[in-house]
Amino acid sequence: QTALIPVLLKDRFHDGEFFRKMKSIITIHNLKFQGVWDVKTIQKLTCLPDYYFTPDKLEAYKDGNLLKGGIVYADAITTVSDTYAEEIKMPFYGEGLDGLMRARAGSLRGIVNGIDYEEFDPETDQYIEKNYNLKNFRKEKVKNKRELQQELGLNQDEKKFMIGIVSRLTDQKGLDLIQCVIDELCSDDIQLVVLGTGEERYENMFRHYAWKYQDKVSANIYYSEAMSHKIYAACDAFLMPSLFEPCGLSQLMALRYGTVPIVRETGGLKDTVESFNEFENRGTGFSFSNYNAHEMLGIIRYAEGVYYDKKREWNKIIDRAMAKDYSWKTSAMKYQELYDWLIGY
């Protein structure tokens, strides 16, 4: 609905003295959600004349499209990561608006989201068993794993490689990749902890594997803020194999808690997780590029190998991850720069 604001500024309020020079910016969080209705319904709700319902304005494929209107009329467009800003110019990610995104490329930029570093702080978090920080995580973080294993009825073994997933259980999140290889994954020396709700088939999938591998898989088909914090603090790795991900916040929380992200290189995941390079001694997580289940499994097993056989390297990855700053302070400065540019400061 807010996508109509740039349109109304140009139409209804264009002659008002206060609004005449006002600039507008629209931020695309997820291009999949556009606000599409038949033209008559939108006209009835907005009182906009026929002039606005043409293919170069609000009309798209014979319907009215609120988001398209905002993109056409806004003075600048942002989205929530640099990579997603590039992706939505392509048909696969463009959701039918890729041509428009290419046309407005000069006014489009990506600014990655942030998280609240006071709410998500392993040093002060009230939800977790044992607080820790960048200096003492080697000794203290594992105490959260032992506590979570006990709470969820998993085998209590602090050396076990524990992978966390906190997610909406939908196709977008790459859960079909997990479905393809979960039996192979569970043949490894790992534990998998899942928290979230969503599509029934994925809820039932995780319930089934929690029953099949009771000592290895915990399916928590609900949402709990407290449990999410416990998973971020307890797990060794955090899995996000998304089909697309405009920004993603879970990987930012995982980095903050020293839980190494394993992600697909798309959208904000690509921008915020630097893939581990053992030869150059850099990286804050692990990543794979193609939407392929066995490519994902291969990178999970690579991470396993580093965890079990190169513990010093694993701890260096955590060092670099926890040192990253994805607080809102960094993103806010980029928005400030955009505002200043737009109004000519």
Task: Describe the protein's architecture and organization.
The structure is a single chain. The chain has 345 residues and is of the alpha/beta class. It folds into 2 domains: 4-114 and 332-342, Glycogen Phosphorylase B (Rossmann fold), CATH 3.40.50; 137-325, Glycogen Phosphorylase B (Rossmann fold, 3-Layer(aba) Sandwich), CATH 3.40.50.2000. Helices cover 43% and strands 13% of the residues. It contains 15 helices and 12 strands. It has a 6-stranded parallel beta sheet with strand order 9-8-7-10-11-12, sandwiched between helices. Strands 1-5-6 form a 3-stranded parallel beta sheet. Helix 8 links the parallel strand 7 (161-166) and strand 8 (190-195). The radius of gyration is 23 Å and the shape is elongated. The two termini are 30 Å apart. The mean pLDDT is 95.
Continuous helix count: 15
Unreliable stretches: none
Provide the β-strand percentage band.
5-15%
Percent helix range: 40-55%
Q: How many domain modules? A: 2
Distance between the termini: 30 Å
Largest sheet: 6 strands, parallel
The H-and-E topology, N to C, reads as HEEHEEHEHHHEHEHEHEHEHEHEHHH
Strand order, sheet with most strands: 9-8-7-10-11-12
Write out the CATH superfamily name of the largest domain: Glycogen Phosphorylase B
CATH topology of the largest domain: Rossmann fold
Structural class: alpha/beta
Oligomeric grouping of the chains: single chain
- Taking all Cα atoms into account, the compactness measure Rg is 23 Å
User: Could you tell me the number of beta strands?
Assistant: 12
CATH architecture of the largest domain: 3-Layer(aba) Sandwich
Integer average pLDDT: 95
CATH top level label of the largest domain: Alpha Beta
Query: Which outline best applies?
Result: elongated
